[in-house]
Design goal:
The structure holds two protein chains of two kinds.
Chain A: H1 2-7, E1 12-25, E2 31-46, E3 51-55, H2 62-69, E4 77-82, E5 85-86, H3 92-101, E6 102-105, H4 119-132, H5 142-155, H6 172-184, E7 190-194, H7 202-219, E8 222-226, H8 230-236, E9 239-244, E10 247-253, H9 254-259, H10 264-272, H11 278-283, H12 314-318, E11 324-327, E12 330-332
Parallel strand pairs in A: 3-8, 3-9, 6-7, 7-8
Antiparallel strand pairs in A: 1-2, 1-4, 4-5, 9-10, 10-12, 11-12
Helix pairs in contact in A: 4-5, 4-6, 5-6, 6-7
Chain B: H1 2-12, H2 27-37, H3 39-57, H4 84-102, H5 110-121, H6 125-142, H7 149-164, E1 166-176, E2 182-184, H8 190-201, H9 206-227, H10 233-246, H11 249-281, E3 289-294, E4 299-307, H12 324-360, H13 362-377, H14 380-391, H15 395-421, H16 425-432, H17 437-473, H18 485-492, H19 501-528
Classes of the chains: A alpha/beta, B mainly alpha.
The structure holds adenosine-5'-diphosphate (ADP) and magnesium ion.
Chain lengths: 338, 536
Amino acid sequence: MPEHNNSKQPLLTVTDLKQHFPIETGFIFKKQIGAVRAVDGISFSVYPGETLGIVGESGCGKSTTVRSIAQLYKPTSGSVWFNGLDLVNAPQDKLLIARKEMQMIFQDPYASLNPRMTVRQIISEPLTIYSNRNMLDPPMGKQEIEGEVEELMERVGLNRLFKNRYPHEFSGGQRQRIGIARALALNPKIILADEPVSALDVSIQSQILNLLSELQKERGLTYLFIAHDLAVIEYISTRVAVMYLGKIVELSASGELYHNPLHPYTKALLSAAPIPDPEIERKRKRIILSGDVPSPNKVHKGCYFYERCPNRMDHCATNIPPMKKISDNHEVACWLYQ
Amino acid sequence: MLNHKNGKTKQEKATNEFNQIVVGNSLSKDAWRRLRKNKMAVISVILVSIYILLAVTAPILPIYPYDEIVIDHQDLPPSLTKTAGELMRDKELAKMYAQAWRQGRLVVDEATNEMLEDWVSRSKVNKVWDYLLPEGNRQLESGTFTWNASEQRSIDSREKRIANEIQISIEKMWLKDEQGKLSDVKHLETDEIVALYAKLLGVQANLLVDQYTYEIEMQLLKKIKAESTGLTDDEYNMMLRDQLDSMSTKNYDALVKENIYEKIASTIKDMAMEQLGTEASQAETTYPLNEKVAVTEYLTASVKATKMHDRRYYLGTDSLGRDMLSRIIYGGQVSIAIGFIGTLTSVLIGVVLGSLAGYLGGKIDYFIMRVVDIMYGLPYMLLVIIAMAIFGRNILNLFFALAIISWLTISRMVRGQIMSLKNQEFVEAARSMGASTPRIIFKHLVPNSLSVIIVFSTLRIPSFIMTESFLSFLGLGVQAPYASWGSLVGESVGGMTLYPWRLFFPAIVMTVFLFAMNFLGDGLRDAFDPQSKNQL
Ligand SMILES: Nc1ncnc2c1ncn2[C@@H]1O[C@H](COP(=O)(O)OP(=O)(O)O)[C@@H](O)[C@H]1O
Ligand SMILES: [Mg+2]
């Protein structure tokens, strides 16, 4: 699979994306005293038909990355090219066209559905919005939207007879299916999924993951898939990016990353993940990281991982490591490999 | 079409046992179900509905007009059994006995005398009346007391009035032509109706023109003066000329017709009164009367006549002889309307501004919230009073003055709600699929704050009614002849000791309504609050 990465045009390219949230003080005259550097200069590409997974601890900026790409926040700097359009500087009408091709699935199946709307209204909302704007191709009438909603419900495994029910009458897994149906409604090219299974029971997780991969095959979807669970990421991803404190520290093909992790942080992360075989699990050596995750407010002069790195060198304290290509499908940002 | 077909085939293999579309339970349906379990709230809903029903149907209810002044019926106490005539007789007799007692003609024993004096000194005159009425009647019967000649005369004349006085209203009039066919006078042409009136008076039709022209002009002038104050007579006359010139012939004819019609009706009324008056004294007719009477050989009218003093005032009358029951119902109309319309406007303003501030944030939020802060700082009552003084005291201005300052709280509340909701994922979801700002605010954010808004509005209505009552009590609210609960209470405070019912009934009616609204608001709050689910 990695071979055709190079031959194909990327669908989504993110270059040096930064998202800083200002920290303000003062009651009337606001003064900026710093910034939460939630995303601090990341670059990657997503190719048609693949799944790029992003892993990292909680708070490392995964959700912010996705929201910046979807232009829910205006990025502080950097560019997001999607489908040949620079989303950051795109005018409103162009952005609307792009949004049709780029849909999101959210983490919290309870908070992501409007409790005052029926399932039918929720799933048909994207269609209604674009239909009201005359941007549906081909145009759809009320009847057709209704039919489409029923079809989508059946496709994601919901009984269409429940279309007049409200979200609070469904279980977490079913709600996430509603969210997926909503994301599919406009027939997008890419789906940005922000931890779509982490709020669900393990047994339900696999059902939802299976559904997502089936849909990918059926519709040729591209996923940007976020998780903090390595097993989930390994199952679904073609390539994986590892994030730490708003930076990507390692980016590689999925299998390669698990067999041959390079960055000390990736190694620590992998060593912390439970392995189902008790034999191996017992023998395994764990890398325990010292210290807490530093505050994302800090401006770094050297490697972002310096404080907690078991292999740190003096050089790392003052120089930020660039992304380096180690092999065809493996990049890492660490001075050990430069 | 294709989709439709697919739907059909799928319906056949649908899996739930009844193969029917399941209707969901919306959160508001849940809340409604919970509200129905709350007894106080249900009673309140019923009470409020009754009030509203009465207020809305007031014009078709069988009650006396709220603004009809009957001088003879001033200050009658409430009674379920006695007619106005009987109450009037009792009241006058009691007063006359009291006068006779003062003059020493009605003699009571020493102890009673002292008691009566004591009441007088503590200005409890009604107690004196209540005591002397049966006492006087008893003495009159046993012959120890007699009326003097002039008193007897006034008693006799009053008895005659009570027995004979009738009230007439003309419902409709018909003109009879040679063939005996009836045609409604209201549908006659203007010149025909003028001719009819001339014939009735026995004068030439053209003699009437000067009179009605003058009257119509005076009428218009009065209207102009009421609309714009503080101009000179010349300016008023100019405005009048202007209006007359710009008026179409059709509109002018309508005015003429109206004027003449009223005159014919009042002439017919006088004529019918004369006829019935003689009949009534011979006690030939039965009242109430409602029939067609041929008043002249060419005019027939449907006449409604009732014995004036057969009226019944279940809640008494006020100082001008107006029916309290009717005034309370019409007063409720005004009070409830102010409560609802005021709340509606303030909620509309508050929700729009609050949600804009909450959702957009930044400079807009800052600006709106500073305006709110500043307006909060201003003395609210003073503002209303000043506004009423400047713009004139009518109901519309009262609505307006109340609405523009009462959106503050609701806008803050809605802003807070919206701010806590706008970072929820379902709002981000809506934004990510390109929903416009109005759509997000009115389809996603406002419906989710609706419970708070509804509860707040329900609790807001009584406070509006209180404010209106307070202003009316001060004399700044609705103006006579209109009534509101507040103005009824305000008017009656003066005669509180002598005529307590005039204070009591409007006060109790208003209190019950306010209680009901408050219980309903509390009930709604419990119903919408998910935590209360476990309590029920
Ligand atoms: N709107 C915001 N304003 C300020 N800080 C934010 C905002 N959103 C996220 N952050 C901060 O950015 C950092 C990254 O958050 P997030 O992207 O949600 O992490 P993740 O999804 O990886 O758990 C966190 O420190 C968080 O507190
Ligand atoms: Mg997150």
